[in-house]
Specification:
Helix content is 53%, strand content 0%. The model has no long low-confidence stretch (mean pLDDT 79). The N and C termini lie far apart (63 Å). It is elongated and about 95 Å long. With 118 residues, it is mainly α. The protein is built from three helices and no strands.
């Protein structure tokens, strides 16, 4: 539980008994449980609101992916099979060269300047 061993848990119980006393410890534990449930419920509601607000395009969005460690693991370290479905560069159709508008410029000729474009 939270990476704590039995020795640490026992020490925390003894400290809690000393701080709260045996009469108030059950009330403090109940209050801590309620607070933890409320925090978990608020986090789940925030996650659901975020997913609903982003729309259907981001239905597979997981807020845990924003953690840099998870981001690197997901996008760099995992096997990506999407490249297998795409054709190789040799199989693609060649892109035609752009057709110049108004002919080619001669040697030393200044290209036209459009005042409205800048």
């Amino acid at each position: 539980m939270f990476g704590l061993g039995w020795l640490e848990v026992g020490a925390l119980i003894i400290i809690a008994l000393l701080v709260f006393g045996p009469e108030k410890l059950p009330q403090a534990a109940a209050q801590a449980g309620k607070t933890l449930r409320n925090l978990r419920r608020m986090a789940n509601n925030a996650r659901d609101d975020l997913r609903a607000g982003l729309g259907p395009e981001f239905s597979d969005f997981d807020p845990a992916d924003l953690n840099p460690r998870n981001f690197v693991r997901k996008h760099l370290l995992e096997e990506d099979d999407d490249w297998k479905d795409k054709p190789a560069a040799a199989e693609l159709e060649p892109v035609p060269a752009p057709v110049p508008v108004g002919g080619e410029l001669g040697v030393g000729e200044i290209p036209p300047y459009d005042n409205e474009a800048t």
